[in-house]
Amino acid sequence: MTLSFIIRISVAALLGGIIGLDREYRAKDAGFRTHFLVALGSALFMVVSQFGFGEVVGHVGIRLDPSRVASQVVSGIGFIGAGTIIFQKHVLKGLTTAAGIWCTAAIGLACGSGLFVLASAATFLALLCLEAFNFFLHRFGARTVSITLTAPSKENVGRVIDVLERANVKIGTYHMERVTTADGHHYTVQMDLRVRRERYIARLLELMRDFDGVSIENVE
Predict the structure, then answer these.
(1) How far apart are CA 52 and CA 70, in angstroms?
(2) Whole-prediction pTM value?
(3) pLDDT tens across 153-162, in order?
């Protein structure tokens, strides 16, 4: 029986580690070790929930609910997932990573229950979502880009905005500030743009290269 338990948590750690390797390759905050431990811990909780209280089962007035400990894993893993979500510059980041950790916990629970085929299928589908669909998202999807540029006048800024709008680039937040230096003054503009993922930096540079005096200071 103990060997069976070891196999369950080992398979869970292996499947979680596979997802973690993908996240590690993508340089995400939650990588191999996080997913490995989440899957391992979830499987162990499931095994303990099912078999860890056998000595007290059968006593008068005591009933065993194997789903009780496992159900707490589902809600408890939310604390780890929440730690990977960041709201920065009006952009929400880390949702995919949080969802991946949540999915990894479910895979660990499935392994802890001995549902190895189901857990393997879920791992395959998770990798399919993270990698195979990633190609289509980068080609046809959109992303939010924070850009900082400087211009000598408001008219230059207005022309840049007109060109971006004609190119179907959606402008989200917008902030312009006048900066005075020893050589005069200029305008610093920070914008959040919704652009196509494919070659977005090259596309922005191409759109702005014909504007005299306008320079891109930073792109994130």
Answers:
(1) 12
(2) 0.65
(3) 777 777 777 7
